[in-house]
């Protein structure tokens, strides 16, 4: 598995011909193995941006490339071998086992009739070990806890052997322990990752670069220190943000208040 | 598991042929069947009448039960995956009401101008027309998502059913009971010469669905995730929908509307073999066949010598099963 070089150039999206842009042209670049955090208030266009990367919504204009190849010039199947996604939707009550869900990741690598080969089985097993799911393989997915489900979905994405991994608010609905686990996981995967997060301190912690969106406009792209400044965060989220030094850990920390 | 299922199926077929107004012992049933396939193997110690009952009436009826049960169960299972709705059922999507419309038109208004095959033909035509209507509505309302496709099906179903009821209202009241019987389902029309149609459609369409089992698995996770796995979600959903309509249309044409089989069987099967569609599809076919065989045995014997419409039996069992499922889920 190798990390890809993700470049977005002037991508924008509008729902129809004469309708306003939901995402105005935005450009950014993520180097192989780096983590880009996409942050912004509700309705900022985060999901729209992620959807264009995981091949669900085609950009109205602009280009997204992985290692120089135009993603939207590829077939859905080939693109699925480059970009995998861990989304918030989860399997319904259809009784698939953990291993069967993880095995879905091999779908874009197999042709219609072929059955699971030894190589597929090995890739699936490696992903299961990596996410420490060995004890759960035979369990029905519906019976898992939130944290376990998220790990299964990541294992499924890894089985796809992508160069880029997109994660849509992976810490949502998880308790603190599982949030931290997912974040340390993100750092350890060695893939190029684009992740949307609500918690700005978490984003500053885990991401190499931050893309700040508001109302479909890019407010800033760069290191967390530059983009998550008191001024920009206050403007973007309509709050009063203060950056403080935590006395014990000596880390920067943002706090928020409603503007008086 | 599959071996046990096939044995159970063969056993159920034997019972279905043996039981009825004239009861035929099991060994006679098998002797007649073997002699029909390979004449002269077994010395004949049964009357011509019994042979006719077994070979000309009950055996095709049992086979039709198998085909219809298997077809409806496969369609139900695959529609549940592509709509991600565990309540999806072949009759939910307007297909059956279209078939009902076609059949009522023949039974109450035009008469059987092409002989007995007129009703199945018109029922099938109605099913296809209703399917096209659902597709047109879903395009018109740009409803390609799972729940909106279901809503389009429900809307068309209501409209077509109303039109069918207009036909009943305008028709000869004396013919109403044939319509009622047809709408509640029954396997009494089974004939050797007709079995080839459901068999052909089930084999081809069923094989197609089975070959796409992996995609069905992916669809249960969610539309967007399925797209990231390289599956053309909207197109695949439409194909399964049309293939399902073909199967349902031909089944409804020969057996009337038999409810709850497509809804219930896949749920039971998942409890037995798990959720992987590579197993769910063949197991649904097997179990659907067995379920309809036994429903037909009950329908034929409970009010003998009258045939009770089979839809009453499947509906009763299915409804009670559903209450049980509901209670099980709640815990």
Describe this structure in words.
The complex is a heterodimer of chains A (260) and B (331). Chain A contains nine helices and twelve strands. Chain A is an alpha/beta fold and 260 residues long. Chain A has two domains: 145 residues, 3-Layer(aba) Sandwich (Rossmann fold), CATH 3.40.50.300; 71 residues, no CATH class. In chain A, strands 6-7-8-3-9-10 form a six-stranded mixed beta sheet, sandwiched between helices. Chain A starts with 5 loop residues before the first strand and ends with a strand. The relative contact order of chain A is 0.17. With 331 residues, chain B is an all-alpha fold. Chain B has a single domain, classed as ABC transporter involved in vitamin B12 uptake, BtuC, CATH 1.10.3470. Chain B is globular and about 65 Å long.
Short description:
The complex is a heterodimer of chains A (260) and B (331). Chain A is α/β, with parallel strands linked by helices and 260 residues long. Chain A has helices at 46-53, 76-80, 98-103, 118-130, 146-159, 176-188, 200-206, 224-227, 230-237, and strands spanning 6-13, 23-30, 35-39, 61-66, 69-70, 83-86, 164-168, 192-196, 209-214, 217-222, 240-245, 252-257.
């Amino acid at each position: 598995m190798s990390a890809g070089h993700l470049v977005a150039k002037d991508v924008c999206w509008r729902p129809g011909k004469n309708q306003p842009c939901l995402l105005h042209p935005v450009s950014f670049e993520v180097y192989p193995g780096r983590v880009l955090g996409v942050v912004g208030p509700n309705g900022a266009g985060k999901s729209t941006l992620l959807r264009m990367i995981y091949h669900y919504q085609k950009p109205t204009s602009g280009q997204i490339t992985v290692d120089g190849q135009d993603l939207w010039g590829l077939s859905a199947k080939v693109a699925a071998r480059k970009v995998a996604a861990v989304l918030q939707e989860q399997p319904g009550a259809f009784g698939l086992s953990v291993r069967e869900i993880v095995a879905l990741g091999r779908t874009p690598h197999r042709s219609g009739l072929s059955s699971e080969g030894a190589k597929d089985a090995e890739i699936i097993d490696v992903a299961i070990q990596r996410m420490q799911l060995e004890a759960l393989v035979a369990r029905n997915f519906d019976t898992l806890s939130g944290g376990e489900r998220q790990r299964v979905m990541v294992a499924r994405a890894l089985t796809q052997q992508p160069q880029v991994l997109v994660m849509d608010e992976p810490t949502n609905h998880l308790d603190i322990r599982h949030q931290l686990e997912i974040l340390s996981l993100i750092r350890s995967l060695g893939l190029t990752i684009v992740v949307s997060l609500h918690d700005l301190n978490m984003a500053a912690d885990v991401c190499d670069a931050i893309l700040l969106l508001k109302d479909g406009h890019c407010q800033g792209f760069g290191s967390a220190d530059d983009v998550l400044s008191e001024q920009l965060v206050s403007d973007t989220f309509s709050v009063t943000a203060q950056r403080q030094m935590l006395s014990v850990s000596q880390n920067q920390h943002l706090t928020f208040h409603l503007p008086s | 598991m599959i071996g046990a299922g096939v044995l159970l199926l063969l056993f159920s077929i034997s019972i279905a042929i043996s039981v009825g107004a004239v009861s035929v012992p099991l060994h006679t049933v098998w002797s007649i069947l073997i002699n029909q396939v390979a004449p002269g193997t077994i010395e004949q110690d049964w009357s011509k009448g019994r042979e006719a009952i077994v070979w000309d009436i009950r055996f095709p009826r049992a086979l039709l039960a198998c085909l219809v049960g298997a077809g409806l169960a496969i369609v139900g299972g695959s529609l549940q995956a592509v709509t991600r709705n565990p309540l999806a059922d072949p009759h939910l999507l307007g297909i059956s009401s279209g078939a009902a419309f076609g059949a009522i038109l023949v039974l109450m208004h035009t008469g059987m101008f092409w002989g007995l095959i007129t009703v199945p033909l018109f029922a099938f035509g109605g099913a296809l027309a209703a399917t096209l209507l659902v597709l047109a509505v879903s395009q018109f309302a740009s409803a390609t998502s799972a729940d909106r496709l279901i809503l389009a099906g429900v809307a068309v179903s209501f409209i077509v059913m109303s039109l069918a009821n207009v036909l009943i209202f305008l028709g000869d009241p004396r013919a109403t009971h044939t319509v009622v019987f047809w709408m509640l389902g029954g396997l009494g029309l089974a004939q050797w010469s007709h079995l080839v149609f459901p068999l052909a459609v089930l084999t081809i369409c069923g094989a197609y669905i089975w070959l796409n089992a992996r995609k069905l698995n992916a669809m249960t996770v969610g539309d967007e995730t399925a797209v990231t796995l390289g599956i053309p979600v909207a197109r695949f959903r439409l194909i399964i929908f049309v293939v399902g309509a073909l199967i349902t249309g031909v089944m409804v044409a020969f057996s009337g509307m038999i409810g709850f089989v497509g809804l219930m069987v896949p749920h039971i099967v998942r409890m037995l073999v798990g959720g992987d569609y590579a197993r769910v599809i063949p197991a649904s076919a097997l179990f659907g066949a067995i379920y309809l065989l036994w429903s037909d045995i009950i329908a034929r014997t409970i009010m003998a010598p009258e045939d009770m419409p089979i839809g009453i039996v499947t509906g009763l069992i299915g409804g009670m099963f559903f209450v049980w499922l509901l209670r099980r889920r709640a815990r």
